[in-house]
From TrEMBL:
The keyword Transmembrane helix applies. This is Carotenoid biosynthesis protein. Signal peptide: none annotated. It comes from the Bacteria.
Length: 337
């Protein structure tokens, strides 16, 4: 079987991150050799993500050329995606700092999502999409934690601050960025975006309950204390927010239709082409490159579960999100660029 260059780059890059993650586990076990693996794995991941498909005599030249090209096309939102990833790296070395690093990482991803839509559409639409997702996400969490609808019986009583109306701020911030990447990956199909969110939550439930962001008390638990109702709720809310996104900015997700006519919106502007280097298989020119966040989460979320001793949950999460990636690739394989 022959793999495409992008698959080689992504695979080798994530393998190098795995070396760094192993180093973090050794550091946690008080083995100093782990620091060497971290120092090796982190920079190696970036190098292989850029030129892992060109190993050999031409590697140095290819790496330099692609790095220069990447810098030339790097947009502001990409720096915030990089910051979001970088803030996840210290978690194994500072477990007690998870609330701080988690909020900072999610905040960076929120800003990245906002800048991405701003660049591809306009500031008015970016702000509106962020506001809708934040408000809907906050609203369903306030309703859910107090009534059990639509997710089931749970509470935020042990959640670390800051909170808004009793809900950790990290939660409504995440609804905007996570739904944007799921909608991008789905090619603008709300039902599939909702399913990708559901599969994402397979990993979030055991990790966030282990960190005591929320506690389940539902009488019919299915997974990590969460009932079937929770996952149906994630699908429904994710699909709803995604549907709003595709109505407000259909071209952002490759859809050939007019956006909803809303008062005060700015005129349409031609979308900016993203970088030609993508960590995802398929055509990089599809425009919705924010989809790269999903495979990044598919790496870090199971890793976080391993760190808290949830090994079975880590394997199930990796399988679930991997299934989501494969399904999205299959469903969108005939989409036009």
């Amino acid at each position: 079987m022959r793999f495409s260059p992008t698959v080689w780059r992504a695979g080798l890059g994530f393998a190098a991150l795995g070396v760094a993650f192993l180093g973090a586990l050794l550091v946690l076990a008080d083995l100093p050799a782990g620091w060497a693996l971290i120092a090796l794995g982190l920079p190696l991941a970036g190098v292989l993500a850029l030129a892992g498909d060109a190993l050999g005599r031409e590697f140095g030249g290819v790496l330099a050329s692609r790095f220069a090209g990447l810098l030339a096309v790097t947009r502001p939102w990409m720096w915030f995606v990089a910051l979001y990833v970088a803030l996840k790296i210290p978690v194994p070395l500072w477990p007690s700092g998870f609330p701080v690093l988690g909020l900072a990482s999610t905040g960076a991803l929120f800003v990245a999502a906002l800048l991405f839509v701003w660049e591809r559409e306009n500031a008015w639409k970016a702000g509106l999409m962020a506001l809708v997702a934040f408000a809907l996400g906050l609203g369903v969490e306030v309703l859910g934690s107090r009534t059990g609808i639509p997710f089931g019986l749970y509470s935020y009583v042990t959640a670390p601050g800051p909170t808004l109306l009793g809900v950790p701020l990290i939660v409504p911030l995440g609804w905007f960025a996570l739904t944007l990447t799921a909608t991008s990956l789905s090619g603008g199909r709300p039902w599939l975006a909702g399913l990708l969110m559901l599969l994402w939550d397979v990993g979030l439930e055991p990790l966030m309950t282990a960190q005591r962001y929320w506690l389940w008390s539902d009488p019919l638990p299915l997974w990590a204390g969460a009932p079937v109702q929770n996952f149906l709720g994630w699908w429904a809310v994710g699909s709803l927010i995604s549907w709003v996104f595709t109505g407000l900015a259909p071209r952002l997700f490759g859809l050939r239709r007019e956006p909803w006519a809303l008062p005060g919106q700015a005129p349409q502007v031609p979308p900016h082409r993203g970088p030609s280097l993508s960590l995802l298989p398929g055509r990089a020119a599809r425009g919705a490159d924010f989809r790269v966040v999903y495979p990044v989460e598919a790496f870090f979320l199971p890793g976080g579960l391993v760190l808290v001793g949830r090994y079975v949950e880590a394997g199930v999460t990796l399988a679930a999100m991997g299934l989501g990636l494969m399904l999205a690739r299959r469903v969108t394989r005939f989409d036009r660029s």
